[in-house]
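Fold this sequence, please.
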Amino acid sequence: MNKKYQIISFAAIILGFFMALLDTTVVNITLPKMTEYFNTTMNHISWVVNAYNLATAVILVTASRLSDQFGRKKLFIAGVVLFTISSLLCGISNSLQALIIFRTLQGIAAAFVVTIAMPLSTEIFPPEKRRTIMALWGAFSGLAAASGPSIGGIVTQFFNWRCIFFINIPIGCICIILTMKFIKESYDPTASKNIDFWGIVTISIAMFCLTFALMKSNEKGWASSFILSFFAVSAIALILFVIIELKVKEPMVPLSLFKSLPFTNGSITLFLLGLGMMSGTYLLSFFLIQVKGLNQLSAGLIISTMSLTSMIFSILSTILTKKLSSRLTSALGILLLSVSCYLNSSLTQNSSNTDIILRLIVAGSGTGLSMATLIGSIMANVPVEKIGIASGINNMTRTLGTVLGVALFLTIFTSNMTAQMSDVKAFSFTFKVSAVILLPGILFALFSDKKRSHDMKNKRFVENIDNV
């Protein structure tokens, strides 16, 4: 494949990926307008966001496995088609119930698009270029996740909330055309066509119950029988899933992947990153609006500083990795993100926008260095044919971290408010907690098994020689 085809193919994948990931955050800032339009409560309107995230979390691993079996290109296109149609339906919804249903369809489609994007990208370029491509992929990942508030604020300010869904339609159509014309089909050659039905059922139940419990924990109470019962069902389903995967001949998830410390440590670190990033975007958005008194557009534009910095440092991470190592680079990134959370704890109502932007630059540089490097390192230590399912697992862990981050930080914040703390002090304490939570990620990034990683690379080298 020549360079022109490579660039166009990668652009097609990034269009779909960016569109799906952007919709995880772009809706947040329009919720007040939706609440007013549908004449409902914030508790009910929150399911416009929750339905999307819940559907995505439940389907991620299943989507990656099915794409490995039946074709990544086919299911990527199917995902983009469903996402585009459901975006149109969301935009024309005249009831909250219809909007939530169509957002659920969007979430299912997003699971296919997001998890297939990475293995499709690795098929376009030769192995020696893949680390650079992963850095670019990480850059767009950070940009999409963090730029949602600013894009949502701009669209809502000058148009209306329906337009945040309509803008997906031309993007989706372009993505479909380019993918059909320029991208080749790819599979996992070791995967059979047999579907691990009970594996899909048990992991879906486990993910649904866990994610749903986290979403409802702040409303129902962490120790309530309602929440505990969902946690219990999730744990039982997860245990059954592991038992099934150990016994079946062709498991949905090859548990042998977790024998690789770079993969396991990287997945745990991505979970902590997803959790920590919530304090940099979700929690800080509330601070800017609730404490500083900014409107949604101004708050979104300030937070976009983090996304732009993240994109720049994702690209720079490849240079730093060559001078240091992937482990040190990712650990440095997590440290910077933790430092930014701690610095946020000193913010007050009188803090200038410049002070806030400087902290967001630190957070963005940390996110860019750690996210891109971790993804590249994980994929370098996974057999090529297993990149699809590995991508699904990593996206799942990061999504869980994000959902837990929202639930945990809201609980910490509201519990401090009930203890007669001021808004500023409650935010300060919550930011400090997020800084501490990120610290174990530094250890997971630093202490990976060099020998195991080296052995796996040697094994892949031998396999490549055998293939020749």
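Confidence is low (pLDDT under 50) at residues 451-468. Residues 197-249 form one domain.
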